[in-house]
Amino acid sequence: MPEMPEMENYRRLITDQILDVPITNVIVNREKSINIEQDIFISELLNTRVIFIERRGKYLNFHLNNGRRLLVHLMLGGLIFVGKNEDLPQRNTQVEISFGETTLYFMGLRLGYVHLLSAKEVEQVLGQLGPEVTDRRMNSERFLNIVNGRRGALKTLLVNQNVIAGIGNRYADEIAFEARLLPSAKVQDLEPEAIERLYVSTKSVLSKAVEAGGYIDTPVTKDDSHTGSYKSEFKVYDREGELCPQCGGIVVKVELNSKKTFYCPTCQHEQ
Predict the structure, then answer these.
(1) Is residue 78 within 8 Å of residue 109, measured between CB atoms?
(2) Claim: this prediction has a pTM higher than 0.90
(3) Which domains are seen in the chain, by residue range?
(4) Is residue 223 pLDDT above 90, yes or no?
């Protein structure tokens, strides 16, 4: 599932392609991917323009010039491509929105969606999300206040979108590794120094992943060679049985609250 770095990468690349260009055509190949009748969805989008693209957690929020919003959540397997049909990857598309000669393709939306909503409806959805660690208003004190009073496994906290927005399985494991904490460490037992390390590692991992284009290596545009560069930077995720790049120990895989979890038992501890 695309996480915060992947969605931010999409936001940056899409913005360069479609902003302030009138929508000239809309194709819906799967009605379950949208939230209203197909004819209404199409008619309300035609001739409008996207004036701003906001990312919040794992969502993209397309602001239209008529005040409406397109809220996108890719969920598991969803991808985005922007360009021309001849350059499109060999994938089925569920929704296609054309801006003149450039088309925004939404692919793999088995569970994901493209919903046309009012600004108030979007606020209700996004209002349930927790803060983002990379937000300029975030600091170590605020992060400590978020963690204090929470209970349970560290990884469960990190992937809880109502507590901290944008982090999923992959980056949670990488964050825990960089913070030298076990994914199973009990949040309520963490000392302030350990929480500070967690804050620093969360900002570090997410920031580096954003700049590297995330881990999903399907290009977003025809000439995109940047997207997915962070995939080779994973230290523990999906590296079961491989050597830990820090200590030379063996990376292990376990199930933690039904989620596959990777860590180094030598480098990572309860504190």
Answers:
(1) yes
(2) yes
(3) 4-126 (3.20.190.10), 140-263 (1.10.8.50)
(4) yes
